Amino acid sequence: MDGFARRRAKKEQQIIAAAKKLFMAYGVQKVAITEIAQEARVSQVTIYNYFKNKHRLVYEVILAMMEESAQMFVDIVYSDQAFPEKMKQMMAYKIEISQKINEEFYHYMMKEYVKPGGQLETFMQEKIMKHWHVLLAEGRAYGYIDPTISDEAILFYFEMMRDCVRQQEVYQKILPLTEDITKLFFYGLIGKSRDEGNTTS
C-alpha cells in the first residue's frame, strides 16, 4: 500500500469511527453529514468522495462494528480462559453493546442485517460459525456442554433464534430484553450451575 492509499484508508477509518460514535449516541436520522465531518475533522466533500452517500457510510459503520464483534468473539474463543469465563465475557460484551447503542440505530442495523441474502449476514456466518464448532468442542470436552446434544442441534437452535430476530416485530422489541435473553441463551431456565459460582446450599 503506497502513501496515498494509506492516508486514504486512515481517513476512511477516521470518518467511520466518528460516524459510529454519533450513531451510537443519537441514531442515524438525527445525525447530519455536517456533524460527522466536524467530528472526524474532515470536509463534507471528503465524506461524499469516500462513501458517496449517507446510507453507504451507515453500511460501512455497521460492517466495521460486525468485524469488531467477530474479532472479539475469535479472541475469546482462542484465549487461555476457562470455558465458563469465555461464556461470561461473551455475555458481558453483548450486554454492554446493547446498553450503549441508540435504539433507532439498532433498528436501522437490524433492517440491514435481515435483508435476504444480504452481505452482512453472509459476513457474520463466514466469520463466526466455524469458530462456534471449536468453542462447542471445548465446552463438551470439559463437561460444560451436555455430550448428548449434537453441534447440529445447537447450531439449529442458533438459526431458529436468528430467524426469529429477523422479524421486524421481534427486533423492534428485543433491545430492552437483551440482558435477560442473553442469560437465557447461556444458562437456560435453570440458571447458573454450581461450577458457575452458585454456592448457595
Structure notes:
- The chain has a domain at 55-190: Tetracycline Repressor, domain 2 (Orthogonal Bundle).
- The longest helix is centred in the N-terminal third of the chain and has 24 residues, at 3-26.
- With 201 residues, it is mainly α.
- The chain contains 10 helices and no strands.
- It is 74% helix and 0% strand.
Radius of gyration: 19 Å
Number of helices: 10
Instruction: Quickly give the structural class.
Output: mainly alpha
The major beta sheet can be summarized as:
none
Task: Say how many strands there are.
Answer: 0
The average pLDDT value, as a whole number, equals: 84
CATH architecture of the domain at 55-190: Orthogonal Bundle
Helix content bin: over 70%
Instruction: Estimate what percentage of residues fall within beta strands.
Output: under 5%
Helix-strand pattern, N to C? HHHHHHHHHH
Which segments are poorly predicted (pLDDT under 50) over 5 or more consecutive residues?
Answer: 194-201
Protein name: Transcriptional regulator, TetR family
Domain HTH tetR-type: 9-69
GO molecular function: DNA binding
Organism: Shouchella lonarensis
